[in-house]
Amino acid sequence: MAVNKMEKMTIISAADKEEVILQTIQGLQALEMKDFTHSNVKQHYLEEHFPTIHMEVDETKKKRYQAMLTNIQDSLMLIERFAGNTKKSKPIKRQVRTLESIEQSFDEEKINSYLVELASLKKELLETENKRKELLVEENILGRWQYLDVIPKRKLTESTEMLIGSINAANQFDFKSEIAKHESVYLEEIYQSPHHVYYSLIYLKEDQMTLQEIVNQFSFTIMKYQYDVLPKKAYQTIKLELAGLVDKEKEIKKALAVYRERKEELYMAEEMTYAFIHRENAKKHLVNTDYFFILQGWLPSDEKNMLLTTLNESIPKDELYVHFDQPTDVEIATDIPVKLKNNSVVAPFEMLTEMYSLPKYTEIDPTPIMTPFYMVFFGMMVADIGYGLLMFLATLIVSKTTILPKGMKRFSDFFFILSFPTIIWGFIYSSFFGASLPKTFLGINLPFPILSTTEDVNAILILSVVFGFIQIMVGLMVNGIELTKRKRYLESVSESFAWQGLLIGILIAVLSKLILNSDGLFMTGVIVAVISALSIVIVPIIQTKSKVKGLAKGLYGLYGLTSYIGDLVSYTRLMALGISGGSIAAAFNMLVAFMPPIARFTVGILLLVVLHALNIFLSLLGAYVHGARLQYVEFFGKFYSGGGRAFNPLKTEEKYMNIEKKQNLKQ
């Protein structure tokens, strides 16, 4: 339960084995590719001994896969949008597969044929949609002019002209009055909408200038008629065209509907294409020649045998050279990645450490130390049997019935584990959805509540501070041990053990006065505290050349006692959140209990469900956030700095499925 030990793995093999080796490494997700040109092998050495080295990677395949990925995603969006049936389209059911099995079932030629046909259908569909939009505009216009019984483009006589258009309805009366003054102009109203009136005008050519002035005066919008048939006939023709386009759309969507049955193939193809792209990206880290290639990467030590065994299954030993090196001090300081290794109970809590910062390679993993404290704190802040049972059942059902993405699976396991301390603290506080447990059961007196959130508030407050004191002591102890391992003995005293002595000494002195009333114990506590305080001041004096600066540094360090008091006060939130959540739940129950019987067992039940759901959400969120804050600020600050780089092996996207190693899948 610590930071996984890493080794540097070097592989040399024939150039034609490159794809097989990369596929094997990607399927196991155990090796982080290392840029060979940034390794401890000198560049001039490579250039001297490998004159045919190819430093530039051919990205033709990568670009082809990227284009293919874009086409697959566009095709899936097209199917989801237009090929859906009456029932809501269900997403692909997540699976657990090996990379090898996906790659064996991947038929690139077949997928490309799908993509070509889908692209053609998409083009037809877009053209049909655009044509429909154009015709709908024309239909809308002609619908207003369908009662015009002449063709505007044709001349009625040699001496007359025809003008059609519309004006704002507000100008209708004035416009007609002005036209009426000119007897040679014939005006006919064709159509009227809520805001516009549509007219046809027949006038003598000699009156064109006069009519133009009137048209301009009333903002008459002239309509340019483009058809050689009557508006009514043009209108009917467009309606027929639109009906034909609707039928064509149906045919295209019918053809698309066939691909509903092929969506899973396309999802698999998308997953595989992502894998190909990641594999092509990895090739830029290799050293390639015309005959062989060199690969280098970071490998967790406990994955070594599995990787070697799997490689030898694909490639004979005599065609593969593998060498392992321990990381150098420079690599540990600048390059080596970090992978945590914990048991199944602690592993879900690694996400809390990752949110803060991964440990450096040589640093202790704080997750196993933090986990029991976080469990106790979380349970103390939620503290309800009913809420804990809901967490337990929800996470259990989800994990048993659904294959979750790995990140969500870890999150589910996280809350599954936390359901147990929540239930335990629910018994301690005697809370079941805010209601108290019975005092007796089948004539047996029950001991609940062990701590009452109404009568034992001070006891819970003291218990919260005690838990905080214990965690701070553990943090200081871990810091002291780590500093001692690094042979920084004086710092281990001034930054850890002396602070433990000071805090314990003060605690003994206070308890001896408040509870035990023992002068001897009081003096013991004072002596321990004074010696510890002197150690905190004296060590910087010893370490610093300037004794005055050392004294100032020591006194300033001693002033840090105030921060410890603040840290202990922070743990009172354990009491505050635990009591507030239970009190809110009890208040909800009381609110419903005051309702009349009919309302209580109808609306009241629904109200209880909604209110308790809200309280569960707020309680879990508060416990999650404040529990993490206590670890990050009050605990990690005592011994942990972080700053490690996460292990990033060559792997797949895992967008639709979980890629597992062969051994895990068989289990």
Which structural class fits the helix and strand makeup? alpha+beta
Oligomer: single chain
Give a count of the beta strands, DSSP E runs of length 2 or more. Answer: 15
Distance between the termini: 23 Å
**Overall geometry:** extended
Mean pLDDT: 87
Strand content: 5-15%
DSSP helix fraction = 55-70%
Q: Which regions contain 5 or more consecutive residues with pLDDT less than 50? A: 663-667
Number of helices: 24
From the alpha-carbon coordinates, what is the Rg to the nearest angstrom? 40 Å
Question: What characterizes the major β-sheet?
Answer: 5 strands, antiparallel
Membrane topology: Multi-pass membrane protein
Organism: Enterococcus rivorum
GO molecular function: ATPase binding; proton-transporting ATPase activity, rotational mechanism
Subcellular location: Membrane
Task: Kindly describe this structure.
By secondary structure, this protein is an alpha+beta fold. Among the domains are: 154-224, Alpha-Beta Plaits (2-Layer Sandwich); 340-456 and 573-638, no CATH class; 458-570, no CATH class. The protein is 60% helix and 10% strand. The protein has helices at 18-28, 43-49, 60-82, 99-105, 108-145, 172-180, 208-217, 231-257, 263-282, 304-314, 329-334, 350-356, 367-382, 385-401, 406-429, 457-485, 489-516, 519-543, 547-558, 561-570, 573-593, 597-600, 603-635, 662-666; strands at residues 2-3, 6-14, 32-33, 95-97, 160-168, 186-192, 196-204, 221-222, 287-288, 292-300, 320-325, 340-341, 440-441, 444-445, 657-659. The longest helix has 38 residues, at 108-145. It starts with a strand and ends with a helix. 28% of the residues are buried.
